[in-house]
Amino acid sequence: MRKTVSIILFLLLVVLLSACNGKTSTFFGENENWIVKFNINKNNGSIEGTFIAEYKGGNLEELFNKEVLYEVGFKEPTSGGVGFLNDEGVLEGTAFKKSCYSNCEGQNLFLK
């Protein structure tokens, strides 16, 4: 039987992205068990969000080899996936990648 661990990071970031290309914005958030670094890279009419979630709670050994569910929203729709922690208790990945050209400004970003 596989156990699933859910990341629930009550983190709401409202991001107003500038119109210049090649800009990377970095945001941090944390709760009692997780520290999250979120990078948003806008370049040549596309926008990509990547994340690194580090587990800082107790019993890290119990989470190894267990699925971690995550959900990230950027405007609509939300995206998510399943991953595994590495040896340092870190989960990282690409949250979204979109083409938006002139419509990259004023987007809402949330990670929960």
Q: How many whole angstroms does the radius of gyration measure?
A: 15 Å
Q: What structural category do the secondary elements indicate?
A: mainly beta
Shape: elongated
Number of domains: 1
The fraction of residues in strands falls at: over 45%
**Biggest sheet architecture:** 5 strands, mixed
What is the helix/strand order? Answer: EEEEEHEEEE
Uncertain residue segments: 1-21, 106-112
Total DSSP helices: 1
Cα(first) to Cα(last) distance is 26 Å
Give short descriptive properties of this protein.
single chain; 112 residues; mainly beta; 5-stranded mixed β-sheet; 4-stranded antiparallel β-sheet; 1 helix; elongated
Question: Overview of this structure, please?
Answer:
4% of the residues lie in helices and 56% in strands. Strand 3 and strand 4 (34-43) form a beta hairpin. The protein is elongated and about 45 Å long. It has one helix at residues 60-63, and strands spanning 4-6, 11-14, 23-30, 34-43, 46-55, 67-74, 78-83, 90-99, 108-111. It has one domain. The strands form 2 sheets. Strands 1, 2, 6, 7 and 9 form a 5-stranded mixed β-sheet that branches. Strands 3-4-5-8 form a 4-stranded antiparallel β-sheet, with no helix packed on it. It has 112 residues and is mostly beta strands. It has 1 helix and 9 strands; from the N terminus they run βββββαββββ. It comes from Psychrobacillus glaciei. This is Lipoprotein.
